[in-house]
Amino acid sequence: MAETHSLxxxxxxxxSSKVFIQRDYSSGTIxxxxxxxxxxxxxxxxxxxxxxxIQALNNLYAEAxxxxxxxxxxxxxxxLTAYTIFLCMETHYEKVLKKIARYIKDQNEKVYAPRxxxxxxxxxxxxxxxxxxxxxxxxxxxxx
Length: 144
Known about the structure:
By secondary structure, this protein is α+β, with helices and mostly antiparallel strands. It has helices at 47-65, 69-80, 92-112, and strands at residues 15-22, 117-120, 129-135. The protein has a 3-stranded antiparallel sheet with strand order 1-3-2. Strand 2 (117-120) and strand 3 (129-135) form a beta hairpin. Helix 1 packs antiparallel against helix 3. The longest helix has 21 residues, at 92-112.
């Protein structure tokens, strides 16, 4: 069984490699990531867990981009107030981005960090990729 780690352990260790999950443009330009399981993660995480994480991210980004009455109201209020309304309130999109950041932090703490992995919020990579950092397994090597 792989050695377990905590988020604090993953702040300084050596990076073994990085895996990038690309955007899926098959449905147009909506923010959606590929659910294809990378072979580099086979020894670290279950395929089903990985797919659930990516699917949850895809669902959250779809929620953020969903147009509804609230989005139109935000737009109208923005025009009427010369966009100063956004000094007082967050947009629906910003609220969902915060929700995504919390979800990624939670997944890192509960699922990925114990396996020596770290998910990076796609917003930090311009919504182009989901970056998964793979840290060296400490049970091999330097004898710490």
